[in-house]
Amino acid sequence: MTWSTRQLAELAGTSVRAVRHYHDIGLLAEPERASNGYKRYGVAHLLRVLRIKRLADLGIPLSQIAEMGETDRFPHDALQTLDAELAGTIERLQRIRVELALILRQGTHADLPPDMGRAAAVMTDADRDFTVILTRVLGPSGLSALRGLLNDQRNEPAMSEFDVIPADADERTRIDLAERLAPHVGVIIAEYPEISAPADDSPVGAKRAAETVGKALLDLYNPAQIDVLVRVNQLILGSDEQSPAS
Protein backbone atom coordinates (compact mmCIF):
# COMPACT_ATOMS: atom_id res chain seq x y z
CA MET A 1 0.00 0.00 0.00
CA THR A 2 1.23 3.47 -0.79
CA TRP A 3 0.10 6.97 0.13
CA SER A 4 -0.14 10.31 -1.61
CA THR A 5 1.70 13.35 -0.28
CA ARG A 6 -1.44 14.56 1.45
CA GLN A 7 -2.11 11.17 3.03
CA LEU A 8 1.49 10.87 4.20
CA ALA A 9 1.30 14.31 5.78
CA GLU A 10 -1.95 13.44 7.56
CA LEU A 11 -0.53 10.17 8.91
CA ALA A 12 2.61 11.92 10.16
CA GLY A 13 0.69 14.81 11.71
CA THR A 14 2.36 17.42 9.56
CA SER A 15 1.58 19.40 6.40
CA VAL A 16 2.04 18.82 2.69
CA ARG A 17 4.20 21.93 2.65
CA ALA A 18 6.48 20.44 5.33
CA VAL A 19 6.87 17.19 3.38
CA ARG A 20 7.81 19.12 0.26
CA HIS A 21 10.28 21.17 2.28
CA TYR A 22 11.91 17.95 3.53
CA HIS A 23 12.40 16.96 -0.10
CA ASP A 24 13.83 20.35 -1.01
CA ILE A 25 16.52 20.28 1.69
CA GLY A 26 17.41 16.63 1.17
CA LEU A 27 15.87 15.25 4.34
CA LEU A 28 13.41 12.96 2.60
CA ALA A 29 14.17 10.86 -0.47
CA GLU A 30 11.90 11.28 -3.47
CA PRO A 31 9.48 8.33 -3.83
CA GLU A 32 8.58 6.51 -6.99
CA ARG A 33 5.72 7.92 -9.01
CA ALA A 34 2.59 6.17 -10.16
CA SER A 35 1.68 5.97 -13.83
CA ASN A 36 -0.34 9.16 -13.43
CA GLY A 37 2.77 11.00 -12.22
CA TYR A 38 1.70 11.34 -8.57
CA LYS A 39 4.17 10.50 -5.82
CA ARG A 40 3.55 7.26 -3.95
CA TYR A 41 5.00 6.98 -0.45
CA GLY A 42 5.65 3.80 1.49
CA VAL A 43 6.23 2.80 5.12
CA ALA A 44 9.90 3.80 4.99
CA HIS A 45 8.91 7.32 3.98
CA LEU A 46 6.36 7.51 6.79
CA LEU A 47 8.92 6.36 9.35
CA ARG A 48 11.41 8.92 8.06
CA VAL A 49 8.92 11.77 8.27
CA LEU A 50 7.87 10.69 11.76
CA ARG A 51 11.50 10.65 12.87
CA ILE A 52 12.20 14.07 11.35
CA LYS A 53 9.15 15.52 13.05
CA ARG A 54 10.05 13.95 16.38
CA LEU A 55 13.60 15.32 16.35
CA ALA A 56 12.36 18.72 15.20
CA ASP A 57 9.77 18.76 18.00
CA LEU A 58 12.59 18.10 20.46
CA GLY A 59 14.28 21.23 19.17
CA ILE A 60 16.94 19.87 16.84
CA PRO A 61 17.28 22.10 13.74
CA LEU A 62 16.43 20.54 10.38
CA SER A 63 19.93 21.32 9.12
CA GLN A 64 21.38 19.24 11.93
CA ILE A 65 18.93 16.40 11.28
CA ALA A 66 20.09 16.39 7.67
CA GLU A 67 23.69 16.01 8.80
CA MET A 68 22.80 12.95 10.89
CA GLY A 69 21.69 10.94 7.89
CA GLU A 70 19.11 8.20 8.09
CA THR A 71 21.22 5.61 9.91
CA ASP A 72 21.80 7.48 13.18
CA ARG A 73 18.89 6.19 15.24
CA PHE A 74 20.29 7.57 18.51
CA PRO A 75 21.88 10.98 17.88
CA HIS A 76 23.62 11.12 21.25
CA ASP A 77 25.82 14.15 20.56
CA ALA A 78 22.99 16.22 19.12
CA LEU A 79 20.70 15.40 22.03
CA GLN A 80 23.44 16.13 24.56
CA THR A 81 24.15 19.49 22.95
CA LEU A 82 20.45 20.30 22.88
CA ASP A 83 20.12 19.37 26.55
CA ALA A 84 22.96 21.74 27.48
CA GLU A 85 21.37 24.54 25.45
CA LEU A 86 18.01 23.95 27.12
CA ALA A 87 19.64 23.99 30.56
CA GLY A 88 21.17 27.38 29.72
CA THR A 89 17.84 28.69 28.43
CA ILE A 90 16.02 27.52 31.55
CA GLU A 91 18.61 29.19 33.78
CA ARG A 92 18.27 32.42 31.82
CA LEU A 93 14.47 32.31 32.00
CA GLN A 94 14.60 31.66 35.73
CA ARG A 95 16.81 34.74 36.19
CA ILE A 96 14.36 36.76 34.12
CA ARG A 97 11.45 35.56 36.28
CA VAL A 98 13.31 36.62 39.42
CA GLU A 99 13.90 40.06 37.90
CA LEU A 100 10.28 40.34 36.80
CA ALA A 101 9.11 39.44 40.30
CA LEU A 102 11.28 42.20 41.77
CA ILE A 103 10.13 44.73 39.19
CA LEU A 104 6.46 43.88 39.78
CA ARG A 105 6.83 43.88 43.55
CA GLN A 106 8.79 47.12 43.71
CA GLY A 107 6.90 48.86 40.90
CA THR A 108 10.21 49.97 39.40
CA HIS A 109 11.15 50.83 35.83
CA ALA A 110 11.71 47.83 33.59
CA ASP A 111 14.46 49.47 31.52
CA LEU A 112 16.89 49.26 34.44
CA PRO A 113 18.03 46.31 36.58
CA PRO A 114 15.87 45.85 39.70
CA ASP A 115 18.67 47.04 42.02
CA MET A 116 18.71 50.34 40.12
CA GLY A 117 15.06 50.64 39.18
CA ARG A 118 13.87 51.98 42.52
CA ALA A 119 16.18 55.00 42.30
CA ALA A 120 14.87 55.64 38.79
CA ALA A 121 11.43 56.38 40.22
CA VAL A 122 12.63 59.79 41.44
CA MET A 123 14.78 60.62 38.41
CA THR A 124 13.93 62.97 35.59
CA ASP A 125 13.35 61.35 32.21
CA ALA A 126 16.76 62.58 31.04
CA ASP A 127 18.55 61.19 34.09
CA ARG A 128 16.82 57.84 33.74
CA ASP A 129 17.65 57.56 30.04
CA PHE A 130 21.23 58.57 30.74
CA THR A 131 21.47 55.90 33.45
CA VAL A 132 20.17 53.28 31.01
CA ILE A 133 22.97 54.18 28.60
CA LEU A 134 25.53 54.02 31.41
CA THR A 135 24.48 50.45 32.17
CA ARG A 136 25.43 49.53 28.61
CA VAL A 137 28.87 51.14 28.48
CA LEU A 138 30.19 50.70 32.03
CA GLY A 139 32.11 47.59 32.96
CA PRO A 140 31.83 45.71 36.27
CA SER A 141 33.72 48.36 38.27
CA GLY A 142 31.66 51.18 36.77
CA LEU A 143 28.36 49.38 37.32
CA SER A 144 29.30 48.72 40.94
CA ALA A 145 30.03 52.43 41.39
CA LEU A 146 26.76 53.36 39.66
CA ARG A 147 24.79 51.13 42.03
CA GLY A 148 26.54 52.74 44.96
CA LEU A 149 25.73 56.22 43.70
CA LEU A 150 22.07 55.44 43.03
CA ASN A 151 21.68 53.96 46.50
CA ASP A 152 23.42 57.00 47.99
CA GLN A 153 20.72 59.54 47.31
CA ARG A 154 21.68 62.94 48.72
CA ASN A 155 19.41 65.95 48.96
CA GLU A 156 21.28 68.61 47.04
CA PRO A 157 19.22 71.71 46.15
CA ALA A 158 21.55 72.62 43.29
CA MET A 159 20.84 69.25 41.61
CA SER A 160 17.11 69.92 41.80
CA GLU A 161 17.70 73.32 40.19
CA PHE A 162 19.80 71.70 37.47
CA ASP A 163 16.92 69.33 36.64
CA VAL A 164 14.55 72.21 35.89
CA ILE A 165 16.81 74.94 34.54
CA PRO A 166 15.26 76.17 31.25
CA ALA A 167 17.16 75.94 27.99
CA ASP A 168 17.21 79.76 27.66
CA ALA A 169 18.51 80.48 31.18
CA ASP A 170 20.74 83.55 31.21
CA GLU A 171 24.49 83.34 31.72
CA ARG A 172 24.45 84.67 35.29
CA THR A 173 21.98 81.94 36.30
CA ARG A 174 24.12 79.26 34.68
CA ILE A 175 27.34 80.54 36.27
CA ASP A 176 25.72 80.71 39.71
CA LEU A 177 24.31 77.19 39.43
CA ALA A 178 27.63 75.77 38.22
CA GLU A 179 29.47 77.34 41.18
CA ARG A 180 27.03 75.83 43.65
CA LEU A 181 26.93 72.47 41.87
CA ALA A 182 30.69 71.98 41.44
CA PRO A 183 31.48 71.02 45.08
CA HIS A 184 28.72 68.38 45.04
CA VAL A 185 29.85 66.93 41.73
CA GLY A 186 33.46 67.00 42.90
CA VAL A 187 32.58 64.83 45.89
CA ILE A 188 30.72 62.35 43.66
CA ILE A 189 33.65 62.11 41.24
CA ALA A 190 36.05 61.55 44.13
CA GLU A 191 33.89 58.79 45.61
CA TYR A 192 32.82 57.17 42.33
CA PRO A 193 35.60 57.87 39.78
CA GLU A 194 34.69 54.81 37.68
CA ILE A 195 31.51 56.57 36.51
CA SER A 196 33.08 59.79 35.26
CA ALA A 197 35.98 57.99 33.57
CA PRO A 198 34.87 54.60 32.15
CA ALA A 199 37.54 51.99 32.87
CA ASP A 200 39.18 49.59 30.49
CA ASP A 201 36.73 46.90 31.59
CA SER A 202 33.96 48.63 29.63
CA PRO A 203 32.33 46.12 27.26
CA VAL A 204 32.72 48.61 24.40
CA GLY A 205 36.16 49.91 25.35
CA ALA A 206 37.02 53.05 27.27
CA LYS A 207 37.18 55.30 24.19
CA ARG A 208 33.80 54.30 22.77
CA ALA A 209 32.25 54.42 26.23
CA ALA A 210 33.43 58.01 26.68
CA GLU A 211 32.16 58.96 23.20
CA THR A 212 28.77 57.37 23.91
CA VAL A 213 28.44 59.13 27.26
CA GLY A 214 29.31 62.46 25.64
CA LYS A 215 26.75 62.01 22.86
CA ALA A 216 24.09 60.97 25.37
CA LEU A 217 24.69 64.09 27.42
CA LEU A 218 24.32 66.32 24.35
CA ASP A 219 21.13 64.59 23.20
CA LEU A 220 19.38 64.22 26.56
CA TYR A 221 20.05 67.54 28.29
CA ASN A 222 19.14 71.05 27.17
CA PRO A 223 21.74 73.70 26.15
CA ALA A 224 21.69 75.44 29.54
CA GLN A 225 22.26 72.17 31.36
CA ILE A 226 25.14 71.30 29.03
CA ASP A 227 26.68 74.73 29.63
CA VAL A 228 26.37 74.24 33.40
CA LEU A 229 28.05 70.83 33.14
CA VAL A 230 30.92 72.30 31.11
CA ARG A 231 31.40 75.07 33.69
CA VAL A 232 31.25 72.54 36.54
CA ASN A 233 33.95 70.46 34.83
CA GLN A 234 36.13 73.55 34.36
CA LEU A 235 35.73 74.51 38.01
CA ILE A 236 36.63 71.00 39.19
CA LEU A 237 39.64 70.80 36.89
CA GLY A 238 40.73 74.25 38.11
CA SER A 239 40.51 73.12 41.69
CA ASP A 240 42.54 69.95 40.93
CA GLU A 241 45.26 72.05 39.25
CA GLN A 242 45.45 74.45 42.18
CA SER A 243 45.40 71.83 44.93
CA PRO A 244 49.10 70.77 44.69
CA ALA A 245 50.21 74.36 45.28
CA SER A 246 47.94 74.87 48.24
Automatic annotation (TrEMBL):
Pfam families linked to this entry: MerR_1
SMART domains per the UniProt record, alphabetical: HTH_MERR
Highest taxon listed in the record's lineage: Bacteria
Residues of the HTH merR-type domain: 2-71
Gene3D superfamilies given in the database record: 1.10.1660.10
InterPro entries (alphabetical): DNA-bd_dom_put_sf, MerR-type_HTH_dom, MerR_fam
Annotated GO MF terms: DNA binding; DNA-binding transcription factor activity
Keywords: DNA-binding
KW DNA-binding (keyword) present: yes
Cross-referenced PANTHER family: HTH MERR-TYPE DOMAIN-CONTAINING PROTEIN, REDOX-CYCLING DRUG-SENSING TRANSCRIPTIONAL ACTIVATOR SOXR
Name of this protein: Transcriptional regulator, MerR family protein
Organism placement in taxonomy: Bacteria, Bacillati, Actinomycetota, Actinomycetes, Mycobacteriales
